[in-house]
């Protein structure tokens, strides 16, 4: 008989070696790494093609707004020059004797990529680029301020409750009682006239500041109520009670236990609030109480286009398409962010 210790081949030797345990041939299991809620959200969001596409479009708009001076330098135009009235450009007329753009589709040409404005001859491409810059960053500032105010007030009212919540609720109800659209129109001239002599022209920076104040004062209530309702349901949870028993301060409980759990509704609300703020700013300029001549603004472009609609309907095309695409993509982005945070709310 052949002794088992004389079996040939290293594989047999290893298998019959009494010093080797059988478990040594099994590969060590890979370590399972836990993922945070943010990582899970990002993983779900990346699988959403619509959300990724809309995020790319939104980022593209902000890049365009930042690059407005560079883009207008490439086109060789600016939003303030009256190409139809400036004698410097008399050798290259852009308007006919009736003040309407020469050429097709509102005067589109190699020099004026989106055409020109009737009566004045200002370049529409430059006006749109700078108008997007004004509206987007104005809306971003207003939305950020509104979100921060609403989150702070909602956290205080929801966590402390009792009399604190009662009085915060009454203040919120007071501000909600104002008819926003009418109040915007009525209050903007009051704010500017209070600080600027009516005989003097109101500076653009002051108009922007007045709009910021008005939109902030009348815009934080929805965010505050959303955060308050979320905090009311969270403050009775076991992990919050455990933090209280352990002796954690209210500030630490709010910052470490409650605030991370309200990030989801805050981000979703932000994605809906920003396009709404852009439309509100455009409405103020359209109504004549926001940005005025010669400051480029999306709303002012629509106000001007309403006057030229019969003679030059093409003037509204590029600003209108740009605004519709941005609002649509931002709203779809909000839906994708909501679904990424809460997969059970899928479309």
Could you characterize what this model shows?
The chain is an all-alpha fold. The chain is 62% helix and 0% strand. It has 14 helices and no strands. The protein has helices at residues 10-16, 37-46, 49-66, 68-75, 124-160, 162-176, 180-195, 204-217, 221-234, 238-245, 250-258, 263-286, 298-307, 317-341. Helix 5 (124-160) packs antiparallel against helix 6 and helix 5 packs parallel to helix 8. The radius of gyration is 30 Å and the shape is elongated.
Report the end-to-end length measured between terminal Cα atoms: 73 Å
Question: Per the principal axes of the C-alpha atoms, what is the gross shape?
Answer: elongated
Counted beta strands: 0
Overall SS class: mainly alpha
Work out the radius of gyration: 30 Å
Largest sheet: none
Order of helices and strands: HHHHHHHHHHHHHH
Oligomeric state of shown chains: single chain
Q: What is the strand content?
A: under 5%
